[in-house]
Amino acid sequence: MDSTHDPGVAAEQARARLHEEIERVRSGVEEMLAEQGGDHDHPELRRELEQIRKETKRYVKKRVAKAERRTNKRLDAIERRIDKVEQDRQHAEWRIHTNTEQMLDVLLNELRAIGDLLTRSR
Question: 19-46: string of b/e by CB count within 10 Å (b at 16+)?
Fold first, then answer.
């Protein structure tokens, strides 16, 4: 599926835009408060802004932790696949070596038989 049509990617982009918009509004309100005289005029608004900051921080931490877990799962799966491929490669090398050795043994026996026939016929 193309990443532009993936619902997960679209959801992540929407969340990022929402987070950016929340931060933009929060920063704007803080600037407005600073211009109007600071915290002592609007303590409830300041507390609400601080609560939004904490929730945003918690949300980002949660999303990062989830992304890390998902990434670690994927890395573990890739490592298992690499181990499997390495195991298959070693088995294939052993099989090739064994088959080549058997083929050379058969060829050597046939050459000895031909050599025996040639020495008897003289």
Answer: eeeeeeebeebeeebeeeeeeeebeeeb
